[in-house]
Amino acid sequence: MTVLRKLVGQTAVYGLSSIVGRLLNFLLVPLYTTIFLPDEFGVLSVLMSWVAFAMVVLSYGLETSFFHFAAKEKNQANVFSTGLLSLALSTSFFLVLTVPNSISIARLLHVPENPLFITLLAFTIALDTLTTLPFAKLRLDNRPWRFASIRLVNISINIGLNLFFFLLCPELLKQGYSASFFTTIYDPTFGIGYIFVSYLVSSFITCMLLLPQFFKVRLIFDFVLWKRMISYGLPLLIGGLAYVVNEMIDKILLVYLLPPTIASTQVGIYSACYKISIFMTLFIQAYRYGVEPFFFTQSQKADAKKQFAKLMRYFVAFTSFIFLGVNVFIDFLKAFIRDDSYHVGLKVVPILLLANLFAGVYYNLSVWYKVTGKTRYGAYFSVFGALITITLNIILIPSMSYFGSAYATLFCYFSMCVVSYYVGRNHYSIPYNFKFIALYLSSAIGLYYIWYYLRFENNLANLISSFSICFVYMLIVLAVEKKKRTTFIP
Fold it and tell me: Any residues with CB less than 8 A from the CB of 103 and at least 6 apart, and which?
């Protein structure tokens, strides 16, 4: 329990930057949905989906590879230096390819009128890639507060610039302020381009804040070590690409599979409603930051498998609570999406929350192939999931639009969980107690449906019933955990 408490503490600190940052970014949703129509918001979502693909390709599994070899090698500095130089070279090559060809890439991505967007995003991707290993080293060195503070600076600058460009500048323009400095930096027709400017500036400052991490290590490139790191990381690259397919390809396929007259609008509605599932993804991201080093440091201990099983049970209990809480308070959360034209997509939120929950379960299950070094299985499972995602999107989008995408994501992650568990039993069997895991999940889903069919029109009555439903779930979890302690159920 001492080890678990330490993990919870580190997860909380790592989550500080993630949760606070994502929440602050979530608060930009009312701003974006007020300023931009669904089709403009759709263009933003599609471009950010391509950014996610680029980030996975350019990091090519080196973050997890760094954790793995830093724990095994005597000279951790060599591992960091070799990985950093590798990223610097590949990122430079990426910029040489993309920046001169921004016009062609813009046409390919259906934004031919704005090639500058591609250039801004290319430099942002490059800077974020270079900070991957410095951030990973902070996690390995157990410096969560330093990690969190730099992340929060990044987020604060990004949000501050968004408010400057989308609130202050238009207001000054209305009041007739037209100083040369102001007119030089602001053009009201640039629209969502200022979102990309904000990303670039905040990424640059983050890179500057991490410079001490770059300069602390003598730069040495160990070619033999590099080949081992690449060999370990390439399956993770394939798995990472497949993961991004599962997360992002639906928005891209919506553009290509729906009629051009409605495609961007449908993507915009889907993306805005997807934002409400942020509370699930926030916790999972914070959990991942804390738990990945934990997997490797605890794997050699005698009770490691019991610890991993216990983590899974607690994880499902908490994420099931998030699933229930977001759904029963949806009538209040939808206020963050200011334009009512987006609200037609709110029924997709429960599906997306459940899909993300299973994504988190799969991440817990992935411990077996990471600690045993059999990362190729992660690639196999992710490719398997990606094939399901692509196939179901192609089949379902023409008739169900973004609802088809949501169901495809849910089925994908559930299938990956099932396959990973059954294959993992033969390599690194962990004694998960699925009876209690299923009890927590089914309780949350059942209580949600009770609330849904008994919901009130009166806001106060609805609020009381929402709190009551969440309280009932907590009582169920506490009762089960108390029984486990008194009867020594594993």
Answer: 112, 115
